[in-house]
Design goal:
76% helix; mainly alpha; transmembrane helix
Length: 267
């Protein structure tokens, strides 16, 4: 079972990177971002932010290679999250196929829910569980998981905002109100994740990247209300991340804290 899990992760990580590349090469439909360039909603970040997919794919491949090493076959971290990440990568590849072949956008939204749920669950187990990731594992294991989980935190709401727009349910004046509601959902999800993942940097930095893209996109499209809301959310999540990182560091940094509380090393 361990071997199947490791192969599944490696194959799915390769697939989620290869499918969009085939689209850009003209070998599999249109480019994956084509539908979202046609239908721009206030929740969709500026176009340049989607370049982060290259980094996400790279770090997910690093993770897939790391977990495939025979020496880590029984690693408890990979046993906790391996099937979740395999499912997320596979769903992401399916999402790309559906988008590139111009299937109804509602199908892409439903498939993306699988990536959303599984990646957030994996991130919670990696960054919120024990033992905490140490050394290089913080990025070789946690990098791809944190980055993809953060990106889908915003992307799932952007995806469904595009679906509603396609159904003509996002005309003004409801468009801005819908955008603020979707943004609030993304912000609440991000706040909970940052709280539970102890301010994990791969997650927090990617959320910041996405929200800066929302700010820039709305300034370009002339929607200052959504831009201001995204900027406020960006600042609030930045403060929360700083607090969680500080709180997580305090027990180890407090002079004699652990030793004084339990001098005999007994529980």
């Amino acid at each position: 079972m361990s071997l199947i899990r490791r192969i599944a992760n490696l194959a799915a990580a390769l697939a989620q990177a290869a499918v969009p590349a085939l689209g850009y090469a003209g070998l599999l439909g249109r480019t994956v971002d084509a539908p979202y360039q046609v239908i721009k909603t206030p929740v969709v970040p500026a176009g340049y932010t989607f370049a982060i997919w290259s980094a996400i794919f790279l770090f997910c491949l690093v993770y897939a290679v790391e977990q495939a090493r025979p020496s880590r076959a029984a690693d408890p971290v990979f046993r906790r999250i391996g099937w979740l990440t395999a499912a997320a990568f596979a769903a992401n590849a399916v999402w790309s196929v559906l988008a590139q072949l111009q299937f109804p956008l509602v199908l892409t939204g439903l498939v993306f829910l699988v990536t959303f749920v599984t990646m957030l669950a994996a991130a919670l187990r990696v960054f919120g569980g024990e033992p905490a990731l140490q050394g290089a594992d913080r990025w070789t294991v946690g990098g791809g998981i944190g980055m993809l989980a953060a990106w889908v935190t915003v992307a799932i709401f952007a995806n469904w905002s595009v679906v509603l727009a396609e159904w003509n349910l996002a005309d003004r004046p409801t468009r801005t109100l819908q955008a603020l509601a979707f943004l609030a959902g993304a912000g609440l999800t991000a706040a909970v994740m940052i709280r539970l993942t102890r301010g994990a940097l791969p997650y927090a930095l990617t959320i910041s990247w996405a929200l800066v893209g929302v700010v820039v996109g709305n300034l370009e499209r002339g929607d200052p209300a959504v831009a201001a809301a995204a900027a406020l959310l960006l600042a609030a999540l930045g403060v929360l991340t700083s607090v969680r990182i500080r709180d997580n560091a305090e027990p180890a940094g407090r002079p004699g804290g652990a030793a004084q509380a339990n001098p005999a090393g007994m529980s």
